[in-house]
Specification:
213 residues, TIM Barrel
Length: 213
């Protein structure tokens, strides 16, 4: 599965905190039906066995919709169940080390907060960057806010696609216009909503408009 700018328009990151009795499969399927273009499985508290089960199930689901599926942080699980790739933070592992483990054909995303981090990640083989938090967010306790100027500077400094993450909603996504990003990554703006399909559709429309401006 390739990673191009179109795939990165509406990037959904899972969070079982919002399930409310539903399965991860159900909520991800709803988001895919609403037009999500990329899915990242993010699990901070699941044991390896259940993580692997969940990952295999979601990989098959994403295949049906021809949407790339990556694992957050856990390179070993990504290799074991043949995910399309991984997304790593600054403290998880150098992109170069991940590339050596995964091989040349897998997608590697790296979180970046500064131009220096972004340039280094690209040099070490990252396929795309996730930059944020661009707005205040409750999904990540240690999130550092990245000013608009830095987001724009990162987009100008690298040739790989950049997506913004952190506190983005359909109401504030327009504020990211002319930053140079090709899409957004969200958690609660999709999975924290009552109607996930509708939330995905509306957010996708708003993001398309923002990217065009």
């Amino acid at each position: 599965m390739k990673c191009d700018k179109e795939n990165l328009l509406l990037y959904a990151v899972t969070d079982r905190h919002w399930l409310e009795g539903r399965t991860l499969h159900e909520v991800v399927k709803e988001s895919l039906e609403g037009g999500v273009t990329f899915v990242q499985l993010r699990e901070k508290k699941l044991d390896e066995e259940h993580f692997l089960e969940e990952a295999k199930d979601l990989k098959e689901l994403c295949r049906e919709y021809h949407v790339p599926f990556v694992i957050n942080d856990n390179v070993e699980i990504a290799i074991e169940m043949d995910a399309d790739g991984v997304h790593v933070g600054q403290s998880d592992m150098e992109a170069g080390d991940v590339r050596a483990k995964l091989g040349p054909d897998k997608i590697i995303g790296v979180s970046a907060q500064t131009v220096e981090q972004a340039v280094l990640a690209e040099r070490h083989g990252a396929d795309y960057l996730g930059v944020g938090a661009v707005f205040p967010t409750s999904s990540k306790d240690d999130a550092v806010e990245v000013p608009f100027e830095t987001l724009k500077a990162i987009c100008e400094a690298v040739s790989i696609p950049v997506i913004a993450i952190g506190g983005i909603t359909k109401d504030n996504v327009k504020e990211l216009s002319s930053s140079g990003i090709c899409g957004i990554a969200v958690i609660s703006a999709i999975y924290g909503q009552k109607d996930i399909k509708k939330a995905s559709e509306e957010l996708k429309t708003a993001t398309k408009e923002m990217v065009r401006e």
